[in-house]
Amino acid sequence: MTVLTQVTAPAPAKGITALGLRKAYGDKVVLDGVDLQVPEGTVFALLGPNGAGKTTTVQILSTLITADAGHAQVAGHMLADDPDGVRASIGVTGQFAAVDGLLTGEENLLLMADLHHLSRREGELRVADLLDRFELTEAAAKLASTYSGGMRRKLDLAMTLVGNPSLIFLDEPTTGLDPRSRRNLWDIIRDLVADGVTIFLTTQYLEEADQLADRIAVLDGGRIVAEGTAEQLKRQLPGGHIRLRFADLRRLDAAARALGPDAVRDDDALTLEIHSDAGVSALRDLLDRLDYAAIEPEALTVHTPDLDDVFLALTGRPNSQKESVR
Which DSSP state fits 67? Predict the structure, then answer.
């Protein structure tokens, strides 16, 4: 007797898979063959200078516009074949909060509940939960026009969550926010990911990508020019070094002899600088050599390339959105 074994097709991936996305407006090519792979339940950050194609990528993947070529699967639905399925599974928060200033915070959320066809009771429960989660309960009855920038951002994201999306596009969500409000929003994003939500983030704040993203892609001139974790991208660049400072010239001289010609000395600053990947093994070897010579530095600092350095090296221009220090 022959036993037939039923083979179940694997469930479609709930993240994002995109191959060969292309978009042009006349002679202007905005995207030129973009491939993306975003695993479910992770934060993926798309970096790039103004005009690189970040917002166009979000608009294509969220069904707002169509690509000229290529195909994609978003939240388990093929973009071309099932755009309604994509829309039902995602949320989108743009660069500017899309709240209605003439409505209260609670009314904005209830309106979204109606748009998602939630029952009155279900909508009220969902809204109350989101107001509490985003610490907006006390401001729920106030007009959204009276909210601060940070509060409007939180309300905007809360409105996106009314439909309980499994994947959220955040297109430069913290633009214009002060550092404290930005970090509060980071905490909310981390909580969402901990609950299994997939986040596709575009940003010009490199610290934001460094803090939040599991993987980062750099988009420039319509092409992905680099992709990896933050640490992988940083390690692609030379320029790491270890700097040692000594108490006096005598110790500096002794250390220079122990470390050899690879150490660049600065007599005025009483420092030696050794080019290195600044990894643990390199640091241990350096300290062992100083210890063998019975020399102890007064201070030691380690520098490795940061995402600003990566951005400059890959795009040929510095990041224009450095966070101000207060």
Answer: -
- Listed as own residue / partner, the contacts of 279-288 with beta carbons closer than 8 Å and 24 or more positions apart are 282/242, 283/242, 286/242, 286/259
Judge contact between 83 and 61, C-beta under 8 A. Answer: no
What pLDDT, on a 0 to 100 scale, did the predictor assign at position 111? 95
At 278, list the tokens: 């600044």
Give 102's Cβ-side CA count (13 Å radius): 0
Which domains are delineated in the chain?
16-99+147-235 (3.40.50.300), 241-303 (3.30.70)
Q: Which residues of 14-31 are buried (b: 16+ CB within 10 A; e: fewer)?
A: bbbbbeebbbeeeeebbb
Q: End-to-end CA distance of the chain: give it in Å, rounded.
A: 78
User: CA of 254: how far to CAs of 39, 105, 241, 283, 300, in Å?
Assistant: 52, 67, 20, 18, 16
* Angle at the Cα of 40 from the Cα atoms of 38 and 46, rounded to 5 degrees: 30
State mean pLDDT over 253-273.
90
How far apart (Å, rounded) are the C-alpha atoms in residues 248 and 270?
7
Residue 85: exposed, middle, or buried by beta-carbon count in 10 A (0-12, 13-18, 19+)?
middle
Separation in Å, CA 118 to CA 7, 121, 126, 224 = 37, 8, 9, 40
pLDDT band at 324 (very low <50, low <70, confident <90, very high): very low
Q: For residues 256 and 161, give the distance between their C-alpha atoms in angstroms, rounded to a whole number.
A: 60
Give the pair of three-digit tokens for residue 55. 């917002």
State the pLDDT at residue 321: 47
> Which three-class secondary structure state does DSSP give residue 315?
helix
